[in-house]
Amino acid sequence: MNGGGRRDLKLIMLKIKTPKTHRAKRALEKRAPKLVENGKKTLILHGMKTSNLLNSVLTQIYHLKRDSAVKYTKKNENIRPFESGGETSLEFFSLKTDCSLFVFGSHSKKRPNNLVLGRMYDHHIYDLVEVGVENFRPIESFEYDKKITPQTGSKPFLAFIGEGFESVEELKHLKEVLLDLFRGEVVENLNLAGTDRVFVCTAISSTTVFFTHCALRLKRSGTSIPRMELVEVGPSMDLVVRRHRLPNDSLKKEAMKTASDQPKKRIKNVSSDIVQGKIGKIYIPDQQVGNMPLSSDIKGLKRERREAKKNKWNWMPVDVSRKHMLDRIKYESCSS
Amino acid sequence: MGTETYQIDLGNLMAFDPSHHFPSVPSDREDLVKECLHKGTELVQEIANALFSLPSAEDPDGPIVHLPQPTTRLPREKHLPKPKPPTKWELFAKAKGIKKHKKDKRIFDEQTGTWKRRYGYDRVNDDNDVPIIEAKLTDEPGEDPFAKRKAEKKKRVEKQENNRLQNLKQAMKVGALTSHVQLAATALPITGSQKEAPKKASKEELENVAGMAATATASGGKFDKKLPGEKAPKHTGKYRKFLPVVEGKGMGNQEKQQTEKILNQLMAKSSHDILDVNKAVTMFNVKKEKQRRKEKDREAFSTSTKLKPKKKSLKRSSKKKN
């Protein structure tokens, strides 16, 4: 313990807090940083003023992401994502609900029907994209056969159309955020019968993206691959990019870091020593001394050698007994 | 229309057509939608082609394919977990070459001659089970060996708890504390000479609190409403002292003295040659006491259980001579 300085560390009473129930422990471990992460959850909330349109936009986005989203209904006064002090509430909510994506809606004269799509890294704001919603059509306005309604939580197809997504920086950023928002859980095995929805995003101009949600109908085709048919079901809207904030370079580098793809596999029988370096162990099976071939059967080998010489150019069949092969090799090495 | 190559990310079920552009935005909304859906269908068909041609396993619900890893890199949600730093024991064991051996749960207990657990209920070598402790030559007559054993165990447990806390603090410094453990400060750091915790107010003090607060009112608490059970304040009304109107013989000019006193106090603070020697000496002594007390405490903590010769006392006496 260091005793120097006016503030003596020894006088700070630290208490170890551990969960008293196994359930609590599991809940904490679920939220801990991991090598392979859980799916990102979304927080949907709005500011002091919202329009009817914006309310329905938020509820419909919530319906699209039912299981992995949390929707707040209260008005939040002090959330201003683009201002330096206005994000503390957002970060607090993100910490409490363990959500790393958020959709914040607000309405003002300057920015009507405003949606801020944002991501968090370690519960701090990573990046933001502000879009305005135009030409919104809710789910109710579409007429379709209710049997093909996509199921909640199914993994969607994503289609991005337009060169704008590659050339314009804002649209590139928006594409990344939309991908993160709508891709659902990252799974290894997929049931092909359960693919029933697709999100289509088209870059109409350098600032606008037409976003729509369609159900998939798999039609019988000649081959084993079915023919796809898109039926518009879900909300469709035009997203006009207003502002965006990219992450810092250092933060981006840290967030993009991945551990090596496989978990570190312990290589067995290899150890390292400071003096000798890398040491390996080789395990040899026990020698069966009783069954070891004796190499002093000279008479038999001599005969075989003569015969082998005779049949030099016709290859002998490979299933020669190991004993004879060994002895032949030994003899040849001895005699040469 | 550009080339028909799309960028497909099968792990995310995503397709991107970088070569499409609208030569002119269709003015009609429906046409726009139709065009977008048409292009969308093409892209989805491409993904499906790639998807359905993957080797699939049969399942009662449907064919299951193994998706490849997604190719688009997206930022993580939380930071990568940091490896835990080795604990003090682990470092020591590594240095000494001590290896962990698997311990059996049941051990043969010599005392009772049965197989007992290594820890827990009904365990081997339990302190409480010892019926007789034989007296040794080194034992003092008044000592209770059972109590001594208990005290030793308590000390051991406390030491272990401290070591554990130190290990956790070390891990916290690196930022690698296990997710289900939190270290919380229960009390604020106590600085300076106030080592004692603030005492709880006594009964008399609490009774006088209302009276103390009443001095803030203009009438000194004379007309304050009293709660049931509250005693009357000791001194109601303000303290005021009025100088006599007429000064008799033999008394100094009190008003002049009063103003002089105030002026002197004001001037003394800014004047440098007026030095209150007594006050200065007291201040110096108090400062010295505080320092000495702090050093004594530091020394007291850092000493081990072994007795150390008191060097400090010699120094103090030498200073007293001056």
TrEMBL record, chain A:
Transmembrane segments: none annotated. SMART domains: Brix (SM00879). Signal peptide: none annotated. It is found in: Nucleus, Nucleolus. One of its GO terms (biological process) is ribosomal large subunit assembly. One of its GO terms (cellular component) is nucleolus. Residues 40-250 form the Brix domain. GO terms for molecular function: rRNA binding. Keywords: Nucleus. Belongs to the RPF2 family. This is Ribosome production factor 2 homolog.
